[in-house]
Design the sequence.
């Protein structure tokens, strides 16, 4: 497979997963605010600011907007094309990547993505606000699910598929760390509120942002417990959005690409992903909280970045060619 | 849908005799369309447009940063060619491409046709697209033009005339196949009864041709489509063909030349590639030989071809054959190389650089169509009879400054075809671009791209100038 194509497939998958995660996050938090109609401006900002911080784009956000409220945050994370990580930017980029590898993906995949693109191109924030954001986000989520279903149902299990899997789980792992981190960034409510209505609502929102509400409750019933929630989202061996599960899938995809047995490694990407996986396999939530949840999440994010970079180096990196030098060499050979 | 108010005017109408009666090969279609009501028809049209948009069957218009994608307007009324007419066209097109290929091989080797004084050497050697750099290079199977799109028109008597040959990177064949799909979906019951010859094997024939020119007979050839990239206006077509053939679509940056061999950069390292169907012009294909500022091409490609390790369709230097001045000489080429008379007629053409024609052109600009030798897409043209005084003067100056760069032709009253316009069928001018593949055999998929000038009275069919397309049917019989 062409290196460029592997790169395109990887990013296409990542962008779609990214858009879906953002969509869920926004939708859940907009819903959450409906429960707290009495909030004043300051409290609204307290609600949204952590979300912007967790996205990692707070600098750009505060360049473009004065303060974080429902309107500005939604606009920034959904529609603003100056933000290369907004939902719109992500879908546009995914579609551009898909266009470049049209010959490698199924026509159903391209058409569903292109459909979403055409819909978003015609959408604008005003009408979305008028007609209800819920419908809008629902449609994006639905398309993302359709797309991922099509990947599973229409793509040969070859290298291209594995690069898409790797991209999807890489993005998902990263987003789960960021969703967990939001709760860290939220200023703790007054001591009397811990375990109170607001606190519980926030934790539930967090679970919903990771599509984990039902899965969590199946195991822990109605016990909304921060420690357990964190454990579930980080270390669950079976839940498809837990960090551990995602890293397991990333590691497996890498080994299927190289054909190297899973207990060995053939490149740095495999070594690093195996290392992170065993750390997660044997990690405990108690140790994590002792170390500091935020610090631990930071640590995972940088491990993920390293795995991404070394995968790029192993498969997609093209030693830069100095075109001028190349031209000169060939000209000399022709003489 | 009714054709009661349809007027053929003073033109040759593809569907109706001057008497108003439908020509025999259109009768089944007429019957089907007569049973259709307008609402039904409009629904079908919208469904087709929507499906093109959804599937991204678009071309890019370069007018803003990202490029706007548009669908090619598609007219639901197909153009029909009866069996015997098509067989005649096939014979003529084959004769023409054989002669053009012999001509290209000759001028890049011995140049006998020039030495024998059949064509004045200056025309060929001074042509903008003559590539001195490939003189003496032997191409696999001696083929230069592997894919040719020859534009045909019909005059007021219904005679087919060759308008021009596109021997570089003719585009549009993906629309031939997609138009057929669209029409088939819109009228599912029409085809089995109409006896239309299929076109779906084009990609298969293209791949066969590419494999046939494999320069490395000891290897199963690795084939690709070489594209300038996703911002090119015909990118959809490049992907479409690669997908249909099941081969890689590569960009210049994916390729590298080492030891006179061409390699693709893959996840498993460098992998040799043997043949590409290239959709990048000569100028940009190899910056170590042609334009140094090109970032689309690959340095060293020409030397890999010269070493006999790599093949390209179309070959380098074919642009000289679609220089409009060379068009004038094609009948002579046919005579010279094949000893035959041309089967297909050409449009009467004058060369501004020939002394006897020069005065005639300069004095009759208001009656002639003037074309510059190397422009495409409907650019660089003067339509004398419809032009303003200023335009005519502008061209007079241009021709005086550089006569070699211009030809003039008598305006042809292009044939017309019923085409849906707002609420009824009206006659619109059309042309036809069949696609000719030159490999082990010469194959022409039955039909080709019928382009239609959608604007009333317009003669310009190019998509960049507001033209649309029609499905083109070649029948198994004459009715």
Sequence:
């Amino acid at each position: 497979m062409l290196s460029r194509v592997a790169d395109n497939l990887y990013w296409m998958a990542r962008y779609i997963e990214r858009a879906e995660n953002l969509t869920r996050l926004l939708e859940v938090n907009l819903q959450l605010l409906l429960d707290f109609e009495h909030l004043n401006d300051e409290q609204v900002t307290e609600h949204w600011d952590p979300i912007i911080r967790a996205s990692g784009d707070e600098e750009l956000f505060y360049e473009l907007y004065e303060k974080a409220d429902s309107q500005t945050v939604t606009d920034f994370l959904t529609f603003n094309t100056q933000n290369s990580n907004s939902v719109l930017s992500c879908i546009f980029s995914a579609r551009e990547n898909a266009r470049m590898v049209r010959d490698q993906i199924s026509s159903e995949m391209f058409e569903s993505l292109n459909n979403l693109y055409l819909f978003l191109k015609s959408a604008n924030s005003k009408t979305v606000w008028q007609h209800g954001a819920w419908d809008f986000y629902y449609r994006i989520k639905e398309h993302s699910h359709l797309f991922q279903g099509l990947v599973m149902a229409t793509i040969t299990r070859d290298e291209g598929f594995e690069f898409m899997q790797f991209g999807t789980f890489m993005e998902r792992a990263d987003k789960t760390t960021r969703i967990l981190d939001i709760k860290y960034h939220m200023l703790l409510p007054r001591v009397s509120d811990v375990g109170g209505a607001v606190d519980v609502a926030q934790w539930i929102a967090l679970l919903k942002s990771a599509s984990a509400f039902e899965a969590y409750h199946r195991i822990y019933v109605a016990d909304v417990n921060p420690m357990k929630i964190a454990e579930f989202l980080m270390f669950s061996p079976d839940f498809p959005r837990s960090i551990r599960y995602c890293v397991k899938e990333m590691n497996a995809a890498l080994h299927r690409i190289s054909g190297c047995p899973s207990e060995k490694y053939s490149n740095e990407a495999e070594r690093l992903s195996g290392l992170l996986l065993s750390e997660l396999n044997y990690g405990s939530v108690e140790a994590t909280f002792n170390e500091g949840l935020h610090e631990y999440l930071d640590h995972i994010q940088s491990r993920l970045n390293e795995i991404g970079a070394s995968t790029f180096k192993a498969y997609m990196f093209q030693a830069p060619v100095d075109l001028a030098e190349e031209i000169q060499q060939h000209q000399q050979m022709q003489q | 849908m009714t054709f009661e108010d349809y007027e053929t005017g003073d033109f040759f109408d593809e569907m109706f005799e001057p008497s108003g009666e439908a020509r025999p090969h259109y009768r089944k279609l007429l019957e089907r369309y007569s049973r259709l009501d307008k609402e039904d028809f409009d629904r079908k049209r919208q469904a087709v447009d929507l499906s093109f948009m959804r599937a991204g069957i678009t071309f890019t218009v370069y007018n803003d940063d990202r490029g706007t994608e548009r669908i090619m307007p598609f007219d639901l009324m197909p153009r029909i060619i009866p069996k015997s007419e098509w067989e005649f066209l096939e014979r003529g097109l084959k004769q023409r491409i054989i002669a053009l290929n012999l001509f290209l091989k000759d001028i890049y080797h011995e140049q006998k046709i020039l030495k024998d004084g059949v064509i004045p050497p200056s025309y060929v050697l001074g042509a903008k697209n003559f590539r001195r750099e490939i003189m003496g290079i032997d191409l696999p199977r001696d083929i230069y033009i592997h894919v040719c799109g020859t534009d045909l028109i019909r005059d007021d008597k219904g005679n087919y005339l060759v308008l021009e040959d596109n021997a570089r990177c003719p585009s549009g064949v993906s629309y031939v196949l997609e138009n057929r799909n669209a029409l088939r979906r819109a009228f599912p019951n029409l085809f089995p009864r109409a006896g239309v010859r299929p076109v779906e094997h084009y990609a298969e024939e293209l791949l066969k041709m590419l494999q046939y020119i494999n320069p490395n007979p000891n290897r199963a050839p690795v084939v690709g489509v070489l594209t300038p990239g996703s911002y090119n206006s015909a990118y959809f077509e490049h992907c479409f063909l690669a997908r249909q053939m099941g081969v890689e679509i590569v960009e210049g940056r994916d390729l590298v030349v080492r030891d006179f061999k061409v390699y693709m950069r893959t996840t498993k390292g460098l992998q040799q590639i043997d043949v590409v169907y290239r959709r990048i012009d000569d100028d940009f294909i190899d910056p170590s030989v042609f334009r140094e500022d090109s970032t689309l091409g690959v340095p060293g490609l020409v030397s890999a071809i010269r070493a006999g390790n790599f093949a390209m369709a179309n070959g380098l230097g074919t642009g000289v054959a679609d220089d409009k001045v060379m068009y004038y000489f094609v009948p002579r080429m046919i005579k010279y190389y094949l000893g035959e008379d041309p089967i297909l007629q050409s449009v009467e053409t004058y060369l501004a650089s020939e002394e006897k024609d020069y005065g005639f052109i300069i004095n009759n600009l208001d009656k002639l169509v003037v074309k510059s030798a190397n422009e495409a897409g409907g650019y660089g043209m003067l339509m004398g009879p419809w032009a303003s005084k200023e335009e005519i003067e502008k061209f007079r100056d241009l021709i005086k400054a550089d006569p070699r760069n211009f030809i003039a032709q008598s305006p042809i009253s292009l044939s017309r075809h019923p085409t849906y316009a707002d609420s009824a069928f009206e006659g619109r001018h059309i042309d036809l671009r069949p696609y000719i593949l030159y490999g082990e055999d010469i194959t022409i998929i039955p039909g080709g791209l019928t382009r239609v000038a959608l604007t009333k009275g317009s003669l310009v069919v190019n998509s960049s100038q507001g033209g649309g397309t029609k499905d083109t049917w070649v029948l198994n019989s004459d009715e």
In short: Residues 3-34 of chain A form the longest helix (32 residues). Chain A touches chain B through 32 residues (CB under 8 Å).
